Amino acid sequence: MSNPPTELLGTATNKSGVRASEVPSTGGRTGIARILLSRDTVMIYTLVFFVIYAALFIPRFASPVSTGFLLLDVIPALLIALPMTLVIITGEIDLSVASIAGLTSALMGVLWAAGLDIGAVLLISLLAGVLAGAFNGLLVAVLGLPSLAVTIGTLALFRGLALVVIGDNAVANFPPELTSFFTSKIGGTGIPTVMIGVIVVAIFFGVLLHFTPFGRGLFALGYSKEAATFVGIHVMRSKFWLYVASGSVSALAGIYWTLRYSSARSDNASGLELTVIAAVLLGGVSIFGGKGSIPGAVAGVLLIGTINFTLRLNRISDVVLIIVTGTLLIASVVAPSIFEGISKWRHTRRNRRILPPASALGATRATASGVQERK
Amino acid sequence: MTLTSPAPSQETPPKTARRATRDFASVLRWREIPVTIALIVLVGLTYLANPLFLSQQGVKDLLLNATIVIILAVGQAMVIITRNVDLSIGSILGIVAFSTGTLFVAVPGIPIVLVFLTGMALGALLGAVNGLLVTIAKVPSLVITLGTLYIYRGLNNAWAGGTQYFAGDRPDNFGALSVDTIAGFPLITLIAIVVVVIVAIFMASTRPGRDLYAIGSDPEAAKLFGIPVTRRVLLAFLSNGILAGLAGVLYASRFNSVGATTGTGLEFDIVAAAVVGGVAIFGGSGTVAGAAIGALLLTTITSALTAIRVDKFWQQAIVGLLILAAIIIDRVARIRTQKKLRLSEARDV
């Protein structure tokens, strides 16, 4: 039911050649078939297939302990990937997420060490994330500055503030009942209790993106800002709130990180932004904007998490694993453009065979106009 | 920019040329001046507070710290000017630095020139892989180089494992490159200055160099104009790889140990240096000299803060603020240029 609007917007605003060629190829399929064969769904198949494979053939994988550690490890990336998906769909990017998580963590440590009540500590830290996100939103959405450059700046700024706040110190003496809650599991399933919260956040962003006018507007915005403005989407307001959401969820990830490892340090979660973006892009979200889905992004995060975890079970060194992340990312973006090239080539060949005069006419016209442009 | 501006040039070539120089001058006036002033003010104030800052040793340290960042920022500027970005340079630097360490141990007595050439060739290879993936697959460079950032780093990890090579494994005259000075300039800094001058001349006054600006201003228009976009973008990535390779070799000379994690997390510092130096993140404007000054400014801040005994933890926050300031200045400059172009075009009609 959510497909027609994209279709309409796709055809209405196919300004670039890439998109124009995509519209007919997806338009040929309808309804269920389209959903079942989309890029995000393929990601989910890959994930399911890989999990089944790992459960069958990797010793010790299919156990509550494994599930528990796997999920505990991916939660920060999973959380941040949700708003990141929305931000990238609008054609922007947020590189400062991990720094916001680090700033939150540093603040928590200092406030807790200063003797504040834990509730107040959590509230103020979360608020810091909201403000950091609003600052990004102000620069990108309101002032219209390029988000790539702005968030490289705030990446340094927020990490720098984390250093200013806590310096070299680490705070570790958080209340044990809280830290043990963050690593606790639901019964014997091995699923961490915190996953419930993560699922709630995931559903929130999923519904927001796919089933509300606001969310549908984000796709339009990613396709064409001008067109989105004309159909009545508040471009500035939408982007601003997305950055606020991104900051808030990054703060949640920072709080989780601090309590799961029971350690508040300035370098917590550093480098996480690249992991998250790699996973989201792997999950089928287009860096050009206008395309992607929450289930796809979640599948991307879980796939990278699972592959890394199984390789680790096979005692392959952690640091070598990132080759897999990188290769998957490049393969996932290069493969579609290769397929597209092949199908375009087949299309023109078929056209030549079926309609020789028309294509000959088109060819002469093309060369004629080409010559004209040269002059 | 000047290449693509619609000009009724047939009858009045002198007028266009004059306008081009004027535009060029105004761009120069706007983009490099703020960062240069910031650098002078920073150095001046720090010197007033602590005269030791500009002692012979102090200046030498400043230059040594800036050298590697300057070379990387120059390469990155070339890529950014074509409206691309290369995030994998930290990993390229790491691999080359480790291979340099390995080479000295594996081939005792190897000539230093050969080590430099090997490092630059390896960097060229890795840069070419980036460039080929970006141009052939037509996928944004941000995504491709994020992927190769991981792959190159993983290869480095797989190769190095826990191994580290220390300065003692390398010949003395290789380490001397970052100790000996000519007229107060360390040798490796002189190499960096030569690099800046060569690339600056290439970008400012050769056809391929100007093409890089045209591609960054408007890729479609550049293609229509007959510029070999694919080859030029490839050239930018290749040059960046060579420079990252050179930086990797120099890193092995400058620092004590090279291992699996050498150069991690460098990518955003380098992009930041270029942006602070006035290279617009969406391509088409900025100069490599600006990027080099940006690099010098960012590395000087750290030393300056130490010299005036400000808490060193403020350094990164200040870098962040500088980046934001640079972006805002770029926006103001762009609005001014656009206004001027509109006015001058209106006059021509």
Brief description of this entry?
The complex is a heterodimer of chains A (375) and B (349). By secondary structure, chain A is an all-alpha fold.
Write the layout of secondary structure elements.
The complex is a heterodimer of chains A (375) and B (349).
Chain A (H helix, E strand, L loop, with lengths): L2 H10 L4 H11 L3 H7 L1 H19 L6 H26 L7 H17 L4 H25 L4 H20 L9 H8 L10 H18 L1 H11 L1 H6 L4 H26 L11 H11 L11 H20 L8 H33 L1 H19 L1
Helix pairs in contact in A: 1-11, 4-15, 5-10, 5-13, 5-14, 5-15, 6-7, 6-8, 6-13, 7-8, 7-13, 10-11, 14-15, 14-16, 16-17
Chain B lengths: L12 H19 L1 H17 L6 H26 L7 H18 L5 H26 L3 H20 L4 E2 L5 H4 L5 E2 L2 E2 H19 L1 H11 L1 H6 L4 H26 L2 E2 L8 H10 L11 H20 L6 H35 L1
Antiparallel strand pairs in B: 1-4, 2-3
Helix pairs in contact in B: 1-14, 2-13, 3-8, 3-9, 3-11, 3-12, 3-13, 4-5, 4-6, 4-11, 5-6, 5-11, 8-9, 9-11, 12-13, 12-14, 13-14
Strand content of chain A: under 5%
Share of β-strand residues of chain B:
under 5%
CATH class of chain B: Mainly Alpha
Biggest interchain interface, per-side counts: A-B, 49 and 48 residues
Number of β-strand runs of chain A: 0
Could you estimate the helical fraction of the residues of chain A in percent?
Answer: over 70%
| Average residue-wise pLDDT of chain B | 86
Distance between the termini of chain A: 50 Å
CATH architecture of the largest domain in chain A: Orthogonal Bundle
The figure for the number of domains of chain A is 3
CATH topology of the largest domain in chain A: ABC transporter involved in vitamin B12 uptake, BtuC
Shape category of chain A:
globular
Overall domain count of chain B: 1
Structural class of chain A: mainly alpha
- Topology as H/E string of chain B? HHHHHHEHEEHHHHEHHH
Q: What's the shape of chain B?
A: globular
Question: What's the arrangement of strands in the largest beta sheet of chain B?
Answer: 1-4
Total helical elements of chain B: 14
Radius of gyration of chain A: 23 Å
What's the N-to-C terminus distance of chain B?
19 Å
Within the CATH hierarchy, at the fold level, what is the topology of chain B? ABC transporter involved in vitamin B12 uptake, BtuC
